[in-house]
Amino acid sequence: MTVATRLARAVQRVSSRGLSWTGGTSRVPYLHYWTLREGADSLVCFHHVFSILDPDVRRPCHAMLRVHDDFGRLLVATSIEVEARGSRMISVRSLLDTATRRAALDGSLELDLVPPEDFGVMPTGTVATYFYMLYRSPSGMMTTVHSIDRGAVYRGVPAPVGRLLGLRTKAPLGFWRSKRAIWSEGLREIRAVAINHAGLTRRLHLGLRTVPEGRVVAEVARSVPSRGVLALEYRPETPPPSNGERPAYVVFSRALTTANGKPYVWVGYGTGPMSVHHG
Amino acid sequence: MAGTRGAGWDPLFSRYFAFSTLSSLGYRTRVSLSNASDGTGTGEPVRLRISVHGPDGRRLLAARECGVLEPGRYWMLDDVEAFAAHEGVDVKGAGGELLGLLHQTPLSHENRSDIATSDVSRWVGLGDDFVEYVDRETGATGGVFYQCPPLNDARVGEVWVTVCQSPKVVFDDGCDPFVLLLHVSTDSSWRATGTMDMTLFAARGEPIGRGAVTVPAFSSRVVALRTLLSASGHRGNATLIGISTGAVLVPFTFVRDRHSGAVAIDHTMPPANYHSAWADKTRRQAWAVDLLQRAREGRR
């Protein structure tokens, strides 16, 4: 166990008993994948969770949104006010159209929800900004998945404390495989996306194999900057051999070194729109 | 989860996956699962069985064996409705959605009556299973991963409450939003009826509709959220807030594209995930009841 990990555990133990000594509620932002591919828009869906869970909260909260491109470069950083009991669906396409000239088709984003001044029900503990991404296109794409990836730095507390708390987001490294087998009949396309949520460049890997046969049909690996994206694309020409069982595909990674992120897996059947699941 | 050795855990619920059909909206149901026990170092085969319940909660198909799944292997059923019909279930005449239970019983749990809840925890924690809905006309799909813990079961808890919050509701000419509720228990004698009281809040926080739905034990319901609107012409995004006391109703909200049939479906996040203050079930129940009462009375 490293000194940093020991220190992080000590801070976490203290934080579990209350972080009021830091002067505020700690917050862990959540992360997601956005795309404009195939004419889609990515809609960031979130609500004023504080006023829903505590009806006495009246003040607006503020959402801090940071959008990065597929190389991890910051494209937009903005703040959005949300009324009590209110919600927002923020269009990434509109945001980029108005805020940047840099062209990008996909990338990652971070959402951090700052509680209002009258959120006093539990000043200790940590706010976790879960949210949803709704992907939608004029040609009929309609798919969604919630955020599961934590930011590497906690907000609302002194920066060194935030970095230590973020160590808990470190994922075990090693082999990973999706628990979903992707039905092969009528399958047009698979696109798996991994995001490097770590704070530094990491080498990412994605693979696709058949089941039950176990043959690797596609693989990609390279170094990806922090917040950057690695994508694996595969269009099957013929159905995989089945050995008498139903043939299918499974996404895997030899090293899920993305800090804490599981891949986003997009699939398209026939001429229909792509749909996504996470993990 | 406290261990309660001798409580007689039903091996059918050592690990299970509850899901609903969406037949009334024109979808067929595909399920996919993996025996991930190999990742724990103590891999063990599981026996797969499917049981099916009707809209009134009655069991229409007793647990029907589907084979044994070895550690590290995958299993799929492409058409749950066809499977049920083949097994004698009157799918078209059921009068509503079917609730499917995909039982995954470790072979070491078979034919036992002394399984402790602590023995079950390991199997629940192995991860999610996947249900996918395929539009019968267009072939468009949408699915969701989730896992099913012990639910509505006095052996593992006294307070069973659901506070549902979903901010991905949208009303416009191209799509329709719905909520899907599952009422399942790991206690086969569970008979409570669940009721979800729901309120829709517009983007700026004003209530724009409400309603309630009753879900018998071991059944599912789909509610078109447009039917809750006070003004049917409302456009824009909204948040669905729902509360069920006395029974956990597992909520999924989804949006369907009217033309492609693609369906954006996901489970909602448990309140405690947002902040530890809401880990207290009694407290969050009181807050949610208060919130919906204020909405009904037009108070902020």
How would you describe this structure to a colleague?
With 279 residues, chain A is mostly beta strands. Chain A has 2 domains: 3-169, no CATH class; 176-278, Jelly Rolls. In chain A, 13% of the residues lie in helices and 42% in strands. In chain A, strand 4 and strand 5 (74-82) form a beta hairpin. Chain A is globular. Chain A starts with a helix and ends with a strand. The model of chain A has no long low-confidence stretch (mean pLDDT 86). Chain B has 2 domains: 11-146, Hypothetical Protein Tm1070, Chain: A (Sandwich); 161-297, TM1070-like (Hypothetical Protein Tm1070, Chain: A, Sandwich), CATH 2.60.290. Chain B is built from 4 helices and 16 strands. Chain B has helices at 80-86, 117-124, 271-274, 281-297; strands at residues 16-20, 27-34, 46-53, 59-69, 74-77, 99-106, 129-135, 141-146, 161-171, 175-183, 194-202, 207-215, 219-224, 236-245, 250-257, 263-267. Chain B is globular and about 55 Å long. The two termini of chain B are 37 Å apart. Chains A and B meet through strand 3, helix 2, strand 6, strand 8 and strand 9 of A and strand 2, strand 5, strand 7, strand 8 and strand 9 of B.
Question: How would you summarize this macromolecular structure in one to three sentences?
Answer:
Chain A has 279 residues and is mainly beta. Helix content of chain A is 13%, strand content 42%. Chain A contains four helices and 20 strands.
